[in-house]
Design goal:
The chain is mainly alpha-helical. It is built from three helices and no strands.
């Protein structure tokens, strides 16, 4: 199963590299420029991104099982 995730991650990184290379070559907006423009237009979206990624970090890396959860048993 680990091989499947490694291949998926490699495909994701490869697709990102291809899209960024295309954007740089053609003079289009890269991911960082698009992100900057988004945050300029809607500043609070940065807070939403922080909440989402913070929630995912807590979900994946904080090893705590509340009472009544399936893992607490």
């Amino acid at each position: 199963m680990g091989t499947v995730w490694a291949l998926w991650l490699a495909a994701f990184v490869g697709a990102f590299a291809i899209l960024e290379g295309y954007a740089i070559k053609s003079g289009r907006a890269t991911l960082s420029l698009s992100t900057w423009r988004l945050f300029q237009k809607w500043p609070l979206i940065a807070v939403v991104f922080g909440m989402v990624f913070g929630g995912l970090a807590v979900h994946f890396f904080w090893h705590w099982c509340p009472a009544g959860s399936v893992s607490a048993g």
